[in-house]
Amino acid sequence: MCPTNGEPVVPFISTAQMREVDRAMIEDYGILLIQMMENAGRGLAGLARTRFLAGDPRGRTVLVLAGTG
Length: 69
What we know:
Blueprint: H1 15-28, H2 33-52
């Protein structure tokens, strides 16, 4: 399914669903919250590097804004 601009629709989950995913990962699979946060950060950094920095961040300035959630 694509909106009128041709971009693909990105699926999303609710806050309650994400809490359940976090709970299951921790309690059912034994993955620590810090591990999940590190993996998410690594994935996002890789995406940003590829998409916005042509794969090479050397000599570039990167600004990271992060909230509490």
